[in-house]
Amino acid sequence: MTDLPPPKAGPRVSLPLNWFGVAPFLLFALLFLILPTMHIVLGAFRTPAGDFTLANIRGLFTASIMNAFWISIRISLLTAFLGCVAGFLIAAAVTRGGLPAPLRGALLTFSGVASNFAGVPLAFAFIATLGRLGFLTVILREWFGFNLYGTGFNLISFLGLTLTYLYFQIPLMILIVTPALDGLKREWKEAAETLGATGAQYWRMVALPVLWPSFLGTFALLFANSFGAVATAMALTGSSLSIVPIILFAQIRGDVLQDPHLGYAIAFGMILLTGIANLVYIVLRTRAERWVK
Prior knowledge:
72% helix; mainly alpha
């Protein structure tokens, strides 16, 4: 009697267990990012009754809302520029300036904390430091006879909000540009010096062109980071400075014009601007990584 061959096993159904690890993230992104964004975009083109309309988009071109967008854009451009310049100089001094190695670790640790320090705590810190009765304001007046507010300075103003935003803009630039500076190959500098280039010529003709995409990409990211900040501005200036996030908050809450769909249109405009800025950052960051490789 011959032995029968063992029956062939049927096709195995393997469960995608690897996906379970990212399932919480995907669920979180769906509930708190994708679906709310779709709701805002659709709401910007709907009436309270649910009909399609362009009136909400036309409402963005009123004088008050356009002025708020212009103030927000100016603050975002200024803080992005100053943050990029100051952050780049600090990171270059630590990574390429021959400073003690422990200083690099301390700087990056502080930058990681400061870049996420915003909202009410940051506003309170600046009020306690540079407010009319702030620590630094009192020291300058009592010890040195210098009245900071006598010069026209006001923390609850365009300049005050700009200074406050720089507290997290500069550290964010340091965190992003430091790996790019580390990616500059030593051979490039040695080759430039062999050909007779000075240090300034090396930075102008070799290092900065390589870092330029990363610099511009980070500028776009800092612009988006500043443009969307609302908690710090609300806690610091209240309603005395009309920027887009504050007007959006008032519209969605419904205590001013009671038109949430106009708020959706304002949010839609913010999404477009920040989306373009982040897209520019991603594209330029990809180009910068190609140079480093």
